[in-house]
């Protein structure tokens, strides 16, 4: 029988539009914060709460297949939202070509959701954010404690800023005052003089709170820079409201280039922490300090500036988290297969995993080709690898140690100082008391690079 082509129209339900997906995610996030003590809802929790199957919800999030309009309305109404026409794309005009033979084979096309390039923190409303439990639950509980201090630290691109955004959102929902002050916003000339820095620091805090700084009226250099800063903070910033103030100091690693100023400032923060043990005004300050350990490794290991408060070190994604993220990108993976291949190459490095899934989702490459090119010349990770290479070149002793690590098949015991420095750079992992390169990508790339100069 001769084959022929027919073009037909077919209704296949609806997909969430980017706007609809954003509205729904924001509503769910608000419910989690206000009604669920900041705890994220799993897919199973959402299924119980919406009365929709986990399979249906998976189709909804991944936008891989359409769902009926009633399902969308039910999901939206569960979180007190009204479904609008702009919230979904109704696939009533989707054309498909049928090649009719005795078996009536049908070739179909889908309408995927395209995600933006993963550069920087994951937005609050993004379904691509993977929660970091039990860390998040611990931080949400800690920030409600009077006078608390938390230290968030990890190598770059591990998700510190994305986590901070969620913490600030939780604090906002609790009615706290919140400030996120990045030290990259402070001019370099202020970091060479303690008085200039503290005046700039206090001014920025006041401005972000929406009050006039009035520094000159409250600044008395005769009593000392640190003490006058403390008095300003106590009687002008904290006394202004009885609401707790969550102060996030991010990108603190910039301070490490100015050790004298850093030493004075962190001594001041320690005094504030100790004052909160006995002073009700200072109990309203909840302090969060975030820094990248790449610069931290330059400091004396025996003279750490950060040894107070709750330490939060971000870890890599687990295999389960990688598979969940792949699902949200709309990738149809076999459990335990593709994720294991990607983790073998990258470990669970959040930013590198996100980048791989972005390119796989976009259709720009396949997993096998991505791995092959990364092993051959760095592939899509070439710039990331070059940044680490520059840091190794600046430290010949560390380079010799890492050369030994990446060129041997056995795990090694190395000098503790070098282990500390390489861990701070994010270049190694531990197997008990032995040290290994962090992932196959690092072992292969740096073995090739180091071979050219040995």
pLDDT below 50 for ≥5 consecutive residues: which ranges?
1-11, 92-112
The share of residues in extended strands comes to 5-15%
Instruction: Give the CA-based shape.
Output: flat
The helical percent reads: 40-55%
The SS-based structural class is: alpha/beta
The average pLDDT score comes to 84
C-alpha-based Rg, rounded: 26 Å
Strand order of the largest sheet: 7-8-9-6-10
Our count of helices gives: 20
The number of strands is 12
Cα(first) to Cα(last) distance is 70 Å
- How many strands, which pairing sense, and closed or not: the largest β-sheet? 5 strands, parallel
Tell me briefly what this model is.
With 454 residues, the chain is α/β, with parallel strands linked by helices.
């Amino acid at each position: 029988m001769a084959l022929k082509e027919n073009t037909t129209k077919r209704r296949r339900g609806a997909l969430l539009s980017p706007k609809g997906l954003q509205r729904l995610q924001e509503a769910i996030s608000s419910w989690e914060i206000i009604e669920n003590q900041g705890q994220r809802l799993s897919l199973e929790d959402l299924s119980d709460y919406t009365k929709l199957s986990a399979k249906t919800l998976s189709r909804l999030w991944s936008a891989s297949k359409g769902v009926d309009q009633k399902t969308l309305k039910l999901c939206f109404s569960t979180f007190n939202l009204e479904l609008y026409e702009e919230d979904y794309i109704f696939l009533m005009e989707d054309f498909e070509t049928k090649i009719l033979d005795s078996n009536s084979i049908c070739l179909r096309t889908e309408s995927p959701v395209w995600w933006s390039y993963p550069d920087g923190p994951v937005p609050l409303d993004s379904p691509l954010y993977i929660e970091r439990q039990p860390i998040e639950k611990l931080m949400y509980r800690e920030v409600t404690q009077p006078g608390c201090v938390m230290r968030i630290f990890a190598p770059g691109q591990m998700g510190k800023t994305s986590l901070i955004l969620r913490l600030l959102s939780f604090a906002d929902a609790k009615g706290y005052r919140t400030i996120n002050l990045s030290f990259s916003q402070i001019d370099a000339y202020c970091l060479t003089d303690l008085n200039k820095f503290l005046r700039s620091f206090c001014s920025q805090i006041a401005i972000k709170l929406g009050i006039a700084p009035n520094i000159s009226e409250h600044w008395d250099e005769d009593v000392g820079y640190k003490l006058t800063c403390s008095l300003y903070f106590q009687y002008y910033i904290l006394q202004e409201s009885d609401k707790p103030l969550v102060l996030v100091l991010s990108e603190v690693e910039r301070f490490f280039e100015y050790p004298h100023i850093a030493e004075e400032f962190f001594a001041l923060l320690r005094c504030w922490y100790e004052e909160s043990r006995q002073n009700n005004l200072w109990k309203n300050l909840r302090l969060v300090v975030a820094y990248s350990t790449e610069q931290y490794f330059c400091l004396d290991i025996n003279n750490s500036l950060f040894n107070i408060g709750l330490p939060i070190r971000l870890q890599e994604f687990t295999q389960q988290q990688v598979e969940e993220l792949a699902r949200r990108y709309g990738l149809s993976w076999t459990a335990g297969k593709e994720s294991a291949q990607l983790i073998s190459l990258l470990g669970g490095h959040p930013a590198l995993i996100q980048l791989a899934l972005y390119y796989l989702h976009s259709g720009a490459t396949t997993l096998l080709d991505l791995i092959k090119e990364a092993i051959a010349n760095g592939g899509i990770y070439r710039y990331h690898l070059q940044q680490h290479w520059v840091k190794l070149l600046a430290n010949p002793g560390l380079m010799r140690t890492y050369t030994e690590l990446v060129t041997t098949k056995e795990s090694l015991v190395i000098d503790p100082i070098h282990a500390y420095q390489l861990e701070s750079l994010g270049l190694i992992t531990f197997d008990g008391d032995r040290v290994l390169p962090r992932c196959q990508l690092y072992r292969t790339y740096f073995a090739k690079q180091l071979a050219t100069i040995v």
